[in-house]
Description:
The chain is mainly beta and 124 residues long. The protein contains no helices and eleven strands. It has strands spanning 3-7, 10-13, 18-25, 33-39, 46-51, 58-60, 68-73, 78-83, 92-99, 113-114, 118-123. The strands form two sheets. Strands 2, 4, 5, 6, 9, 10 and 11 form a seven-stranded mixed sheet that branches. Strand 7 and strand 8 (78-83) form a beta hairpin.
Amino acid sequence: QVQLVESGGGLVQAGGSLRLACAASGGTFSSYTIGWFRQAPGMDREFVAYISTLGGTTEYTDSVKGRFTISRTNAKNTVYLQMNSLTPEDTAVYYCAARRIGSGITYAERYSYWGQGTQVTVSS
């Protein structure tokens, strides 16, 4: 059983940056792949970024490529999402999620464990 806690959200002006963190406890962190998802009001939860167990593979949704960077430090049981050049369209609750290695990394239903989410609000 893995517990995930997100932090680092907040209010930022357009063009600004935030770094989200996802701290894990329980289980063997390095055996889990991690995804970041976000959900805006009235919208479905959408995939944002993915990182493999050792960090060698990352994937991003097109709208954040070149602006967001996902990374992990297994020694600290933590995954990060560095978000630069933020726009109001990035406003959402951001969730991290963990799963074992497998296909369908962009599908929320493939992830077994979820954090409670952290709010990111970007003002224009």
